[in-house]
Design goal:
CATH superfamily of the domain at 109-244: Vaccinia Virus protein VP39
Bound molecules: S-adenosylmethionine
CATH topology of the domain at 109-244: Rossmann fold
Radius of gyration: 18 Å
Structural class: alpha/beta
Distance between the termini: 34 Å
Oligomer: single chain
């Protein structure tokens, strides 16, 4: 992986015609014009500085900010996934510019266990859960992709609903941040319950911002036995993905 020189990075940004979501340092002192500061998010999520030899899956990669950061931190195998084609967020051009080994896959989280057919040491799922119309289906898929650890960042509804209640708020139109692709936000209590149901043990749940009802939460997750099949069914059923 290479670091372009500042003039080349500036020229790349000026000539880009794709959507910039991430604010990230492309070259020393050259910051991309996105709205989301991936450096801040990686710090808040506790992304390890040393990822030597690990496999990392970045779901909902947008401009690949987290995926490229994982590669720079030594991850040996990084897969970046988005529902949009690689040209939408310029992943094809960014991979070329950075001479990166990140592999881009266009797919939805729901289908990833079948499309990729493997687990990853570390799965990043930042800013995706509230975009899903079927959040439990998404979390079941996330569990099947997680080898050792998963970092999840998502919107929570603690400002709209009693945070102590296991309630999930549905947004019929664009009520969440004026974005019609946002469907659900759980309270932090509901989020923890959903994660346990789908087979994640929550190691750390950081409300953002701290000290007031949260609008986002960042969770460190480790895989555990999914709770729901044993509660729901006495025997394994055809078509129900019971395998952890
Ligand atoms: C809010 S952005 C978050 C980008 C990045 N993960 C971050 O946190 O900075 C959501 C991203 O998830 C992608 N996305 C939405 N639904 C998805 C799905 N079902 N499977 C995979 N990616 C999805 C979007 O295209 C977009 O790139």
């Amino acid at each position: 992986m290479r670091t372009p020189d500042p003039a080349e990075a500036r020229q790349f940004i000026d000539s880009s015609r794709f959507v910039w979501f991430h604010k990230m340092e492309l070259a020393p002192g050259v910051i991309t014009p996105g709205v989301s500061d991936i450096g801040w998010l990686a710090g808040a999520a506790g992304l390890p500085q040393d990822l030597s030899g690990t496999s990392v899956l970045d779901i909902g990669t947008a401009n690949g900010g987290a995926a490229f950061m994982a590669e720079r931190r030594g991850a040996s195998d990084v897969v970046a996934v988005d529902i949009y084609p690689p040209s939408w967020f310029g992943m094809d051009r960014l991979i070329e510019l950075l001479d990166s080994r990140v592999r881009f896959v266009q797919a939805s989280l729901y289908e990833l266990p079948e499309v990729l057919g493997r687990r990853f040491d570390l799965v990043l799922c930042w800013g995706v859960l509230y975009h899903l119309r079927h959040p439990l289906l998404g979390l079941d898929a996330l569990r099947r992709l997680t080898g050792a650890r998963c970092s999840l960042e998502t919107a929570v509804a603690d400002r709209e609903v009693d945070p102590g209640q296991p309630v999930v708020r549905f947004y019929r139109r664009d009520e969440l941040s004026g974005d019609g692709s946002n469907w659900w936000a759980p309270t932090t209590t509901a989020l923890a319950d959903m994660l346990a149901s789908c087979g994640f043990e929550v190691g750390r749940l950081v409300p953002v911002p701290p000290g007031e009802p949260a609008s986002r939460a960042i969770c460190d997750l480790v895989p555990a036995e999914p709770e729901w099949p044993a509660i729901c069914y006495e025997v394994p059923l055809r078509g129900v993905p019971l395998e952890a």
